[in-house]
Each structure stands twice: as structure tokens, then as C-alpha cells.
Amino acid sequence: MPLSEYARSEYEEDSEFVMSDEEDETAPQSSTDLNPPHNSESFPIDKPGLEVLEDSLSNTSRNSENRNGNPIQSAPGSIISNDTSKFINHVDLVMNKIKTLESDDRWHRVLKHRTGVQVYAQKHAKTISKTKTVPVFKGVGLIKGYSPASVFAVIGSSKLWDEWYEDGNLVENLSDQVSLTYMRMKAGIGTRTRDLSLVEKVEAAADGSIYFCASSVVTPRVPTVPSRIRAHIELNGWVLEPIKLPDSTPGASTTATKVTYYLQVNVKTFVAEAVSKRYLARRPLCITKIDAYLQKYGSPVQLEGISDTEAHPRQGGNRRSYSRNFMSVKQLEFPKDSFNGDNGAATAPNSLSSRGMRSHLPSISSFGQKTRARLPTSASVPTFNRNSSNVRKPSQPPNPGNHSTPGSPLPKAPQPVLIDHLKPNQESTNWNSISQAFELFSTYLNDFNTNRKDWQAIENSNNSVKMWLNSQISQGGQKNVREGLFSLPIVKSETMLDNLQISPGSPPITPEQISMTILSNLAQQTWDQYLHGYSKFGSQHRHHQHQLLVNTDNGFDQGTFLGTMKAVYPHIRDELMFCFDQVVFRQPTVSSDQTLHSKIIIIHHSVDDEEEYLKRLEDNKDLHVNFPGVKFLLREKVQQKSLSKIDVAGWVIESVPSSDQIKITHLSALSLNLKNQRPPTTPSTDSLPDFLPKLIASNIASRPHQVHEFIREYGFSPGFVRWMDGEIHYDGDHLLAHSEQILTGIKSGQVEWRFSKKLHQDGPQTTQTTPRPLPSIKLSPSVDQSCWFQWSEQMYPHGIDLTLEPEDVAEVRLVSDSKNTLQFDWKPDAESFKNPGTLDGVKTIIKLQAKRIHSIDSSTSQRVILNGSRSLATVHTKVNQLRSKLEKVAEGRDDAGKTPGGKANGTSRDASFDPLTNSNAQTETKPVPSSASNPPAAPTSSPSNLLHDAKKGKKTGTQQSRQQLVVNPDVAIIINQDIYFTRSQVLFFFICLGSAYLYSRFG
Question: Which pTM does this prediction carry?
């Protein structure tokens, strides 16, 4: 599991930590030396993630299951009274020990964070049972502007800040203050998932302090799960004390909370004790994450009047995920006496509802007076309903234009109006093979619904993606008989992207923006860890884009590409090269509620005639200049017949009607070429171990989840969502040649897009035996080529700084009705095109470079800078209910040359691809827009029906779940199916070995 932004920031600050007693001789030996700082500003180092409370899209019947689909078995009835008393007595001992540790002065400081949080340790502290001594760690910090109740609300909502926490649920209330809970922790790299059975207790003191503790217990009410390791925590606790700061600044809040965190864990592992201690010593620094969350978002609202089960943080399955806007205190009405009167920023009710134990009185000291009923089982917990009468409504008057009923779902934001998009070039030489690949793609998707029994579910540690594997189709006649080719099982996977979770408070993510992230070379290099750019071009090109554009067929998203798959040592010792065609079909659909939605289908396919790839490569002179060895390399692979094949691979991205979700489906069928692998493999297709094809296939199946995580963490990839026909061709995105940051690439928002313009050469033209079609056909001399560019606020929080070279090749304006959207109106007759002076006069290279605006002071109201200009003109869009005459003329031109049967190149045009006539969009000065895009001419099967049958298909047979396959693209060494090592494990092994050697030599 890669380090998150929290972890990275902490490890980057290692120089500011004091890691041992010997290194910090002047450090205070007791936590009492920590005085609350009185400066008015505190800058948290960490930036909290945008996740909110755990979402549940399932019904209440799933409440009895954990998040991985495994049922949490429950014993009949409730816990027997003896166990209840035993657990209450145990947690009382834990609480007493925390209070004892609070007054203990035998602490030694081991860490210090730049925000002021300090970590102390006792190396030889006794456990609760006093049978052994285990180190105990304590973190101390000050959170300004918030009361203990507000801080505790964030602590209780573990999903907001805790990187260890995956999910959990309340099992049973043992008393008014004690609960039995279940928690699942995230799995690290090379480790299995761990879970906990905890007994928890919370107390509130008369002075406003809050005490919380938890400890592991063994009970049949929380049985072990076979695929998980049951961890054990001796002691985990929080002490929150109210602090009154001096009134040094007029108007500043004097409210603060001293936060003390305790942790005692007996780590039973082969890892060296020194390593485990350093790892646990960093855990109390989670105080900085809680502080960072509060300073940026405020305290989560505590909803009064709902059940304790709904409010309990472990009951993640019954709690809806809301954006921070919905959950802000300002939007919900609470009694005045339930707010913190010291500071407006700390406007959270004095309640403990996030732990299911809260007071409805103004004073926190009245905690525990409410009587609660015991919950017999988690399956009986009702689902949280945001429309419940118990949830307080906004204090401002409702919008008169909103007529939604209380029981109806929240209205979905309408799809943005977009200009027209160019169509796939049906005159390309490979169109027939693309049509056949599309048919095969559709057949596999239909087979998934009609023959579900042949598709085995792949278990994985991630619940956000569903994966299936089918080995029957390839074994039943689809196997490629060419020498050295090994057909992998067909894999299908899907995930749901929820805008409420991904972009709270921001414009909703659209299918077009997801497709940009999938198609972007730089983005794919980040999220697709299994496929990567070819490394044999030399070390100077080790950071080049994931795949190389060999040829473009329509000037934008249709072309031929070159990419590779990494080796799997020792079974596949060399990288596998693929040469494949890519076509993107963009199609609007209309749901039953007459709402316009988008569906995008991406098809990848390798042709049988590999010599055709060499012919296409001849046209791309840019590639010869940037990568002079690619032509020789591709020719060598073709002559040796060592290219691997993409039989078919594809994506379906579609918005879900009446919802804020977008469904991402991926299907892949690959044939690996094992020829010339070192040592030489036999030509038999049985040359790979049985487990290895499933391992590779399951890694490929995780791609939708990787796209989902990339968008969640960084935002969608910037780029062009619409590209009209014209003379300017898109050549892909690249890494900036001179990046200002060490972390280069799309993660830091530094991207370069390249374009080219085909120039008409003077003099006699060389004739070809077979004339090659033009990649793009301009509709009319009077029609300009307009394109729309979009970027994500999450990737560019303060705005985007663009540089266009040459400057005169396009007019760039802001689109008024679409946020973070620019319109590029290309000028084919610009002066820069008349004297190109590059590439033998064949092409003029255009570059568009993007960087982040690093501060709000450097930004503008439009949040965009172009070539140093801080103000751009605006272009307006408007909806036209009738199709323009020019659009009809364009369609007539598309139909010209076709047979009366409506066929082009032997492929029939499906009627479902006719453009919608009820809404078209156009700019004020541009005559050729449409509501989403003009649907392209289709291959034999229509993409509009791809998933239609999926919704109606019958499920014949039960879904078969097989043994868990490791979904880890970082595998370095594989011995057999059960014994394998990732690169991180190998590196960690050598680090531990070196540490042990140094300790034995010098320790």
C-alpha cells in the first residue's frame, strides 16, 4: 500500500524528529514540561484526505456482513452475563491505567513534530495483566479553537483521519459507557488484513475532560475471519482536557484542548524490536492529522435525535457519506445552548454522538444519564435516513425552485453541455479489425450475464472493485495457436465512482473526465503499475510516457500505440511488448426521466498483420526524432514474431441515472508472447505455472480501482474533453522537460501536451499504390476547429498556469457556463505555421505546458493564467433545440460514398448512433456543437446496447468465489503460488538484515 500524503509529509520531516533519548539529551523528561504555546497561529503539516464517513450502498440485509463480504457470525442471544461483567471489569482496569499513566512522570521524549506535538515513551511498562513489560507510547499536543467534545467528534469518526482504519461496526452495548466493537485495519504492502475485537469505554469529567480507552478481548460474539489476522492491542486511549488560552489577540478564540494519546501494543513479529518501536512511536502523531482536519473542515456535526447505533463510529455500514457542505454546522439547526460559545469556529454541539454516547444537555458533565437499550445483533440496526424527521433541517428557508419530496433522492446535477466531438475514421485501413474487436468485446460482456457460472469471482482486499475471471472461453477455442502465445484468462472488473465522496463541494466528475484519466499517458503511468513505458530506449527516456503514439487515425483519440508489460521474475524475465489500435466511442444516452447522460467506450485491439504497424510508423517522424530506436525495435519484434497481443481490451464509462455515481467497467483478454524469453521457454502454452496467469489477470482486473484511487487522491487528469475536426492533430501528453519539483509528472500538475499541423508540401507528390486516408476531414473552410480543455480543482487548488507555444496558433477563452473549462479555437493560417522550420517542413509542433499556481496570492479570480496574462475573454454557450443546417450537411457528407445498405468498408452503421435531435449546444461564434457529442458511426454492434443486455441478463448459476488471488503489482520474485515476494519485501528484508548486522556489530 503506497504511503499517503500524511505518511509522506511525516517521513519528509524526519530531520525535525528526535528519534531517541540519546539524540535528545536536552529534551524534557516529563510531559509536564510541555506548555501550551500562546502564538495565535498554528500551521498543521498534514493535509487531510477528502474522505467522509463510511458510505453504504447496500440495504439493511447486509448489516450483518463485514465489508469484505464475509459474514460476522453471531452467537445466539447476547453475551452471557459473566462475559459482560468480565469485559466491563477489564475496560475499567484499562481506564484506571490511563489515569495512572497521566500522572506518571517516568516518560522520556522520543519524537518531536514541528507542529508542537511531542511523543514520549516508557520502555518497560507492565501490561494490564502485569505478566510482561511492553513499551507504552504517549503523544501530547494542543488543538486550538475547539473544545474536547468537538475534538472527540473527529476522533470518533476514524474514517476521516485514521490511515490504519478500514471499517468497523458496533456489536453490542454492554452498559451505558461500555461497548463491544469490531474494527478492520488496512493491509500494508506484503501483509494480510488485520482486525480487532475491542471493548471500549468513554467517561466525561465535571471539568469538561473526556476519557476514552479501548482494549482487545476474545469473545464468540466477534469470531475470527479465516482470511484475516486477529491483532491484539493492550491499551489504546485518549485524554481530552479543556484549556483556556490567554486573550492575547482581540477576537481570537481562547478555547483549546490538550490532547493526550496512549498506545501499548505487543508486536509479535520477526521484525527487529528497534524497527517496531520506531513504527509505533510515529502512531501518536495522528494528533497532527486530527488538528489538520479540524483547522480545515471544522468538527463533524453531531446529529441529535438519532439512534445510538447510527451514531456509533463502528457502525460504518449504516452511515451515509455526505460532503463536507452537507455536514457543516452552519447548514444544520441546533439549540443555541448546544454550541460552543467561545468561538464561532468551534460550533459543534457538546455531545458524544460519534461514540454513541452523548448528552442532550448543554453541559458535558451530564454524560451517561441517558438509558440505552441493548442491541441484540448488528443485523437489526436500522439504516440511517437523511430525510428522517429526527435530522434537523437547514435554518435558511428552502429554495422555492426545489420541489423534491422528502422521500425522493437528492436531485442530480445536470450533465454539462459540451461542444461537438470528432468521429472515428471509418476509412482507416484497420476499421474492419476494430469492428471485429468490438463484436468480441460485446460478446464477452453478454457472456458474463448469460453464463455467470463460468465467471469466477476474484476475492481481493478491496471492497470498492468487483472482479471476475473466465478461463473457459479461452480454453474452448479462443486460444491463439501462433507459436509462443499464451492466452491469459479473460477478466472483467467494475467499480462505482461516487461524486459525493470524490469531489465534495466541487463540480461533479463526468465520464469524459474519467476517460481523460484512463487515456492520459502520464496518468496511466501513475495508476497502472503493471503496464509501463518501454525501458530499452535508454536511461534518458526512463520517464517517458507510458505508451508511444505510433500513428493517429482521426487526430485525437483513434490511433496506434506501443506499450509494454513488466516482467514477472523469474518466470517472465523480459518485458512484453504490445502494439495495438485504440478507438474511443462517445455516445449520449437518454434515461427514462429524459435526463441526458454520457457513455464512453474505449476499445484496444492488436491486428494479426503486424507488418501494418511498420507502415503506420513511417508516417510519424516526431517519434523517430524523440525515440530514434523505436523503429528498429519494432521491426525487430515483428520479424522475430515476438510481439504480444491484445485480443481485445476495453472500458465502458457511463453515468448512472438519477444518481451521483459513474460506473467504470473494464474487460481484458491478452495473449502473452513467451518467445525469446531468457532462459528460452518452450512453445507450449502450458509453459507458465497455473497460478501465474491468474496472478497477472487479477492485477489487470484491479485497474478500475487504480483509476478510482487516482481520481480520489489527485483529481482527474487535465486535458481535452472535446476535440473537433480540423488540421490540428493531438499527439499526446508528456512530462515537462524542466520540472521545478522533485516529484515530477502529473501528480504535481506539471504536464505538457503536444500537437501538430500537417503542412501541404509544394512540388510533385509521390504516388502510393494504396492511397492512405486523411486522419481528419474538415467540414468546411468556414468552420473553425474548437476544442475544450478542463482541469481539476483538486489537482490545481489555486489555479492553473498555462503556456502555449507558439502563442498565435489559437485563441483561448473561458467557457462561461462550464467551470474550469477553456475553449481553444485553432488558427490554421497563423504566421507560425507559414515558416515552421522544423521536421523537414512536414509538421509544426505546438506545445501547451501546465503548472500549478502555488499560492492564492499568485492566482486570479478566473484561476487561470495563460502566457502570463491574468485575464481571459469569455465565450458563452447556449442550447439550441434544432440541429443546425451545417450539421445536417456534415452528416450527409459522412453518408456519401456508402452503399444503399448503409455500409462503409463492409460495416453497417447502427441506427442507435444517429445523433440526438432534441438538444444541441453551440458557442456564439461556432456553428457545429452538440449536447454531448455527435455519436460516432458504429461497428457492427452498437455501444448503446453494450450494457443494456447486462441489465436484463439472467443469472444462470451461483457466483463462485475462489481462493484469494494476490492483487499486488509489485511482485518481484515468485517461487510458487503460495510463496512470493514483492519488491518492498525484498528491500525491507535487506534493510532488516543490515540493521541487525549494524546492531550486532556496534550496538
Answer: 0.53
